[in-house]
Amino acid sequence: MTKPKVLISDKMDPNAAKIFEERGCDVDVITGETPEELKARIGEYDGLAIRSSTKVTSEILDAATNLKVIGRAGIGVDNVDIPYASGKGVVVMNTPFGNSITTAEHAIAMMFALARQIPAANTRTQAGEWPKNDFMGVEVTGKTLGLIGAGNIGSIVAARALGLRMKVVAYDPFLTEERAIEMGVEKADLDTLLSRADFITLHTPLTDETRNILSRENLAKTKPGVRIVNCARGGLIDEAALADALDSGQVAGAALDVFQTEPAKESPLFGKSNFICTPHLGASTTEAQVNVALQVAEQMADYLVNGGVTNALNMPSLSAEEAPKLKPYMTLAENLGSLVGQLAHGNLTKISIEREGAAAELSGKPIEGAVLAGLMRQYSDTVNMVNAPFLAKERGLDIRSVRHEKEGTYNTLIRVTVGTEQGDRSVAGTLFGTDAPRLVEMFGVGIEAELAGDMLYIVNLDAPGFIGRIGTLLGENGINIGTFHLGRRQAGGEAVLLLSVDAPIPQDVVKQACALEGVKVVMPLAF
Ligand SMILES: NC(=O)C1=CN([C@@H]2O[C@H](COP(=O)(O)OP(=O)(O)OC[C@H]3O[C@@H](n4cnc5c(N)ncnc54)[C@H](O)[C@@H]3O)[C@@H](O)[C@H]2O)C=CC1
Ligand SMILES: O=C(O)CCC(=O)C(=O)O
């Protein structure tokens, strides 16, 4: 088996490359390339490990013909076009906790730097001025910290602030009263927070709702003399409005680690005496960088080598232990999806995926993804279990997933039912032993078959002589039959025949089979 190939395209702790190699991947570390250079190179790689500098745009993704996974050594993934990556079937992962403490500490450091004007005092002291009378600071003890965003980093900042004897007021639409009590913070709406906070610190992702959350209008609602820290994302604050608020004194000080445009080479904020900044250093500690580098490499290698999925933003998680157990189910699920997709001629409105017995104990999402991948392969060559659910939803398919704990005739079973213009059509399959996928039912008829390679599906009237006739026809046309599977509703009624053949069946042979006496349906299938 060829080794998966990974590109590390941003500066990352060397442990990442080591882990990739130890886990069976080939790895190249090539940082600082232009988008054109990356575009020319990316086609070779199965994995791309990044921090925040590499922008994974739709153009890069179009050129990434082998790419299976993007790993962000960090939290924010706003530098990756996730919907486009999902559409291309590329898993996007991050490391949601590895740099949280470090970033929270940076926010606290920025708050102290603002309160005591440390950067300016340092510069002037080192210039030989000894400006003791120019730097009257403020205490943080007893002050109110307004926390916008109370997730991982926000919670750590809150805990540190409480340790500093500050009061913490938090605005986060997803923060429950119970969690606020557990954190020791007061839950508030945004206007209340703005009017009460002596310090404001932001810890939300950049979304349509949070963009410009500190707009000119909202900055005007702040308590006069507030100090603001942003170590989350540029774009959360209107930078021009903030510069004006610093000039007017409405805002006494601001500390930014992140800017609307990065790298920030110019800004209306630069040069103001009450403004301090760092070049997106929130996550830059040795500890955090080792954490995220190790974690991203482990997660990506696990996916590329074993199929394990951890911390993916566009796919459900799947542990490395569960991945091998699921593997035969994924084959079965994909084949069942492919079977109904080929038989239903594309006019599908809904699909239901049922799991019974042992299959009900497994994660449903990967099985659902595999069924949909098999189904959607009729429409797209590039479909896989990552993008199939998105493509299916785009086509308006109504998807239901059902789990039955009780065992039926089989101790494990997956049933796929699709709604077509002709009514519901259902197929079901099981595993023989622990790893041999088998079809066991087709449109209500019991039939046992392995779904593999080229096959021929025939519905005919159950009558003597038919099997001989079809065998002769295929033989006369030089088509060798590999396996032969029969099922019927009742003697003399409708019978189903599923043959595996050694080569694709030409159209004219299909026509001749259709003309045989008693034949209702003939359809070549491929798995
Ligand atoms: N400066 C740096 O180097 C670093 C920056 N970050 C950034 O910090 C931010 C926060 O990271 P985490 O705490 O790990 O994320 P998280 O996902 O754990 O927390 C984000 C919180 O924001 C809240 N939120 C979402 N929409 C909101 C809204 N409209 N108003 C108020 N709150 C809202 C969410 O409910 C959630 O609790 C992210 O943008 C991340 O990219 C993270 C690490 C390093
Ligand atoms: O990788 C970095 O230095 C930036 C970290 C960051 O912004 C994040 O993890 O969201």
Structural overview:
This protein is of the alpha/beta class and 527 residues long. The protein has four domains: 5-96 and 287-306, 3-Layer(aba) Sandwich (Rossmann fold), CATH 3.40.50.720; 100-277, Rossmann fold (3-Layer(aba) Sandwich); 321-450, 2-Layer Sandwich (60s Ribosomal Protein L30, Chain: A), CATH 3.30.1330.90; 452-527, 2-Layer Sandwich (Alpha-Beta Plaits). The protein has a seven-stranded parallel sheet, with helices on both faces. The two termini are 22 Å apart. The chain has helices at residues 15-22, 35-41, 58-63, 82-87, 100-115, 118-126, 152-163, 177-183, 190-196, 216-220, 239-248, 286-306, 322-343, 364-376, 388-394, 466-476, 507-514; strands at 5-8, 26-29, 47-50, 69-72, 91-93, 144-148, 167-171, 186-187, 199-202, 226-230, 251-256, 275-277, 348-357, 398-404, 412-420, 423-432, 436-442, 445-449, 454-461, 481-488, 494-501, 519-526. It is elongated. It is built from 17 helices and 22 strands. It is an enzyme of class 1 (oxidoreductase). It holds the Pfam family 2-Hacid_dh_C.
